[in-house]
Design goal:
The chain is mostly helical and about 100 residues long. The chain is built from six helices and no strands. Helix 1 crosses helix 3 and helix 4 crosses helix 5. The chain starts with a helix and ends with a helix.
C-alpha cells in the first residue's frame, strides 16, 4: 500500500489512473489525505489564515509548484520580503487584508 501512496504523490497521474488505484485499495484515500495535509496544508499553516479561498489557492499552488514557490508568489503579491518562508508576520499580513 505504501508503494501505491508514493506513486500517487510523486507522479502526475490522470483521474482515470487515480480511480483505478482507489478501486484496488479504498483505504489508500486516508493515507493520501494525511500526506497532503502534512506535506502541504500544515507546512503552510493554512489553518491560521482567515480566508479559506486564499488557503485553498496556496495549497493548490504548493501541491503543483512546491511550498516555497507558493509562499514566494504570495509574498510577491503582498510586496513583502520574498524568502519563501511562511512566517507569523506573513500570516498576520494576509489576515489583515
Amino acid at each position: 500500500m505504501q508503494k501505491d501512496v508514493a506513486f500517487v504523490v510523486k507522479k502526475n497521474i490522470t483521474n482515470k489512473e487515480m480511480n483505478t488505484i482507489l478501486k484496488k485499495n479504498n483505504s489508500i484515500i486516508g493515507e493520501i489525505k494525511n500526506i497532503y495535509k502534512n506535506k502541504y496544508w500544515d507546512k503552510l499553516y493554512l489553518d491560521s489564515l482567515n480566508s479559506q479561498k486564499i488557503a485553498e489557492e496556496l495549497f493548490d499552488t504548493a501541491v503543483n509548484m512546491g511550498v516555497s514557490v507558493a509562499v514566494k508568489i504570495l509574498q510577491n503579491s503582498l510586496r513583502v520580503k520574498t524568502d519563501g518562508k511562511m512566517t507569523n508576520d506573513l500570516i498576520k499580513i494576509v489576515n489583515e487584508r
